[in-house]
Design brief:
Layout: H1 5-8, E1 13-14, E2 17-18, H2 44-57, E3 66-70, E4 86-92, H3 103-107, E5 112-113, E6 118-123, H4 129-151, H5 158-190
Antiparallel strand pairs: 1-2, 3-4, 4-6, 5-6
Helix pairs in contact: 2-4
């Protein structure tokens, strides 16, 4: 019988933790972000491509976070006193699937726990533990995606540039017409030849 995977490959992920110094493979279903510390316009295409592929995953895999369960308040009647349906997910901010440029933004979020340098999210919306697990993983995915997307600069397309130029031209023409009307009104008031 072959030894377990953990014994043969000590640097793989196990419950969101790394057991070695480096990571051998990319997380399942999540693309690794480009190694960009601060965003610049030349990195926009690469970061947008990563964000698009990251958003298609729709949730963080369970293997990349540490999940804990506890008793939940809320719906369920006497069931809440018997079953641990509340789910708490903890994920280190320096996980390799979290982009470097989004880490500062995530550390300013209310979900950041400074003592453990991790993100902590909970879910107790459902009476089912499995539904709460899915919910917390989707919420964590959305938090990382939104943080990363908010920092990616949007450069305008050629069509948008043309539209802005035409709007500025129209605004200048409208302003010029108003100025000439106002000027004509003032000059008509200043004439002293009252008949």
């Amino acid at each position: 019988m072959a030894p377990c995977l953990r014994a043969r490959l000590p640097v793989y992920f196990f419950h969101g933790q790394k057991s070695g110094v480096r990571f051998v493979h990319s997380p399942p279903n999540l693309p690794l972000p480009p190694a960009i510390l601060s965003l610049a316009p030349e990195h926009e295409r690469e970061t947008r491509a990563w964000l698009t592929s990251f958003r298609t995953a729709a949730a963080v895999p369970k293997s990349l976070v540490e999940l804990s369960f506890s008793r939940s308040s809320g719906p369920g009647g006497q069931n809440v006193n018997k079953l641990s349906t509340k789910v708490t997910a903890r994920c280190p901010v320096d996980a390799p699937w979290i982009p470097l440029w989004a880490r500062d933004s995530l550390m300013r979020s209310p979900y950041y726990v400074k003592s453990t340098h991790s993100l902590l999210m909970t879910s107790s919306t459902s009476r089912s533990q499995a539904a709460n697990v899915d919910d917390v993983l989707v919420k964590l995915h959305a938090l990382v995606a939104d943080s990363a997307a908010s920092l990616i600069a949007k450069s305008p397309t050629q069509e948008q540039r043309k539209r802005v130029a035409s709007l500025q031209k129209a605004d200048n023409a409208r302003r010029r017409v108003q100025k000439t009307k106002r000027s004509a009104a003032k000059t008509s008031r200043s004439r002293k030849d009252w008949d």
